[in-house]
Write a structure and sequence with these properties.
- The protein is built from four helices and 21 strands.
- By secondary structure, it is mainly beta.
- A four-stranded antiparallel sheet has the order 4-5-6-7, with no helix packed on it. The protein has a four-stranded antiparallel sheet with strand order 8-9-10-11.
- Strand 1 and strand 2 form a beta hairpin.
Length: about 350
């Protein structure tokens, strides 16, 4: 239904078969929000980066099909102005939400193309040295009447979906580190989770952080690579330090979660896709020894506590930037009739 052009245009394609479909009333209840994000949801809305908790990136709607797709044409367009517009729009109850430039959030009426509000987070002015490595925003998230965005300067912000007014803001990174955010926040239950980038640019130890979606209170944090044994006592250091060698913690280790986060509501499991090590070269980072967990891995966490469940490392001892940061999609498959 929509695509973003290189010149910063949001193009809405409409077509006669869908013209009479109504737009549902906004439902601010948490249970209704949950229903919109389930993998079994109707498809009337696209409330998250991949539409559903399971990041399926698929619409079950059938009004547009191979028999009538040729009838699609331009219905309206909206000039977003200068700056990067390579982002994933979302839609809830007839309103499209998206971020362009450095986290300037737009709300647009899906039927008319009329801009409802714009919120500039001020990220470009606050990002400083992070502007050298971060380019914009991959997407935003919706939950219970709120829009969530992660910013170039490392904040996670909740906005009122109706007015664009800021409801809360938390800083998720260190004051002077190289971490930044380009990835879309993800919602699970009544929580919002965000990772960060930075492992291509400097000393960075990767982590994800979960917050209360209503208040912004930090609930838990999971580090994707170990810190210094005997000093850091987090779960990852205790589990994974034996898979590293040398003094890796002085270089950070990497393993950032800059994109891939998926949720299985049935088991309350959050899946992370982790990135490359820092430095890239295994011999420099870890004396060429060890698998270096949890680099380039899919890591499963308990949604309520953030505790480790299991992992699968796709590239042990990685040194080539062959990471696991691409979108993770959940699906039910029949394998050998089971």
């Amino acid at each position: 239904m929509r695509k973003l052009g290189k010149a910063g245009w949001l193009v809405a394609l409409a077509f006669a078969l869908a013209a009479g479909q109504g737009i549902g009333l906004a439902d601010s209840g948490a249970s209704a929000s949950h229903a919109k994000l389930l993998d079994s949801a109707s498809g009337d809305d696209w409330p998250g980066f991949g539409r559903t908790y399971g990041e399926q990136h698929f619409s079950p709607l059938e009004s547009i099909n191979n028999a009538n797709v040729a009838q699609l044409g331009l219905f309206w367009s909206s000039d977003l102005g200068p700056g990067n517009s390579v982002t994933g729009p979302i839609e809830v109850d007839g309103v499209i939400y998206l971020a362009n430039r450095h986290n300037v959030i737009h709300a647009i009426d899906a039927r008319s193309g009329r801009e409802l509000w714009v919120h500039d987070t001020g990220a470009a002015e606050r990002a400083g040295h992070r502007l050298r490595v971060a380019w914009g925003s991959r997407g935003v998230a919706w939950w219970n009447g709120r829009i969530y965005t992660g910013t170039t300067d490392g904040r996670l912000i909740a906005l009122d979906a109706r007015t664009g007014k800021e409801l809360w803001s938390v800083v998720t990174v260190g004051t002077d580190d190289i971490r930044y955010i380009t990835g879309a926040p993800r919602i699970f239950g009544d929580k919002v989770i965000i990772g960060h980038g930075g492992a291509d640019s400097g000393t960075t130890r990767g982590y994800v952080t979960a917050y209360d979606a209503a208040t912004g209170k930090q609930l838990w944090r999971f580090y994707t690579v170990p810190g210094q044994p005997g000093v850091d006592t987090d779960e990852t250091t205790q589990m994974a330090a034996k898979t590293w060698a040398g003094e890796w913690w002085k270089l950070g280790g990497g393993g950032t979660v800059w994109n891939a986060i998926t949720y299985d509501a049935a088991t309350d499991t959050v899946f992370l896709g982790t990135g490359n090590g820092y430095p890239w070269n295994h011999r420099i980072r870890s004396k060429g020894e060890g698998d270096n967990l949890f680099l380039c891995s899919i890591v499963a966490l308990d949604g309520k506590t953030g505790k480790y469940k299991w992992h699968y490392q796709i590239n042990p001892g990685e040194t080539w930037d062959y990471n696991a940061s691409m979108d993770i999609e959940l699906a039910d498959l029949t394998v050998e009739l089971r």
